[in-house]
């Protein structure tokens, strides 16, 4: 693994990185949580470009990604990924891993060196936060081991509980 993984407690919209990742829904309707914060901070560009993306491509499937500019935020791009709405009887972990990979693959394709990633699906999508953080941190490590093209991935948490879950996940992995 060549990239550095850090945990940052703060506002993802203020991260000075190439890409911020949005935990989005399939229609890129940024109504709550991380998505609402990103849409507000990136207004009006993020909303306008999101609507245009949906008009051209249709809904983003789980594990899929869409790209917009970041508007006036410090980042250059927003990569919108759709994680799973947590439900019993579906492959929640596989879907979450797929969303993380999609975010990192698209970021690398954009030529990014740094990415800020939230706790995808751990909010209104109902994924148990500690499990989501463990899976996200593990998939980030796996992706870096296989690809290594990103210099920094920030696991960004607005609250201390998610930040602590990310830190615990990284410690458990031996970082």
Key structural traits:
175 residues; alpha/beta; Leucine Aminopeptidase, subunit E, domain 1; 6-stranded mixed β-sheet; 5 helices; 41% helix; globular
| pLDDT averaged residue by residue | 95
**For this structure, what is the CATH class?**
Alpha Beta
For the biggest sheet, the summary is: 6 strands, mixed
Output the radius of gyration. 15 Å
Oligomer: single chain
The CATH superfamily title: Leucine Aminopeptidase, subunit E, domain 1
Q: Note the total helix count.
A: 5
What proportion of the residues is helical, as a percent range?
40-55%
Q: Which CATH architecture?
A: 3-Layer(aba) Sandwich
User: Could you list the spans in which at least 5 consecutive residues all have pLDDT below 50?
Assistant: none
What does this structure look like?
The protein is an alpha/beta fold. It has a single domain, classed as Leucine Aminopeptidase, subunit E, domain 1, CATH 3.40.220. It is built from five helices and six strands. It has a six-stranded mixed beta sheet, sandwiched between helices. A hairpin with a 7-residue loop joins strand 3 (65-69) and strand 4 (77-82). Helix 3 (92-109) packs across helix 4 (129-146) and helix 4 (129-146) packs across helix 5. The N and C termini lie close together (11 Å). The mean pLDDT is 95.
Reconstruct the topology from this structure:
Elements: E1 4-9, E2 19-24, H1 33-41, H2 45-57, E3 65-69, E4 77-82, H3 92-109, E5 114-117, H4 129-146, E6 152-157, H5 160-172
Parallel strand pairs: 1-6, 2-4, 2-5, 5-6
Antiparallel strand pairs: 3-4
């Amino acid at each position: 693994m060549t990239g550095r993984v850090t945990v940052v407690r703060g506002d993802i919209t203020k991260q000075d990185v190439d890409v911020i990742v949005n935990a989005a829904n399939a229609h890129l309707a940024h109504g709550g949580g991380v998505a609402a914060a990103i849409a507000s901070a990136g207004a009006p560009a993020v909303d306008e470009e999101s609507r245009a993306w949906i008009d051209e491509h249709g809904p983003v499937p789980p594990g899929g990604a869409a790209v917009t500019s970041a508007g006036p935020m410090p980042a250059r791009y927003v990569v919108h990924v759709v994680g799973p709405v947590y439900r019993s009887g579906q492959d929640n972990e596989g879907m979450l891993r797929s969303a993380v990979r999609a975010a990192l693959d698209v970021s690398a394709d954009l030529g990014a060196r740094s990415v800020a990633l939230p706790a995808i699906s751990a909010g209104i999508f109902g994924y148990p936060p500690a499990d989501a953080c463990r899976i996200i941190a593990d998939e980030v490590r796996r992706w870096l081991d296989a690809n290594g093209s990103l210099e920094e991935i920030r696991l960004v948490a607005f609250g201390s509980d998610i930040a602590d879950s990310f830190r615990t996940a990284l410690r458990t992995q031996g970082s």
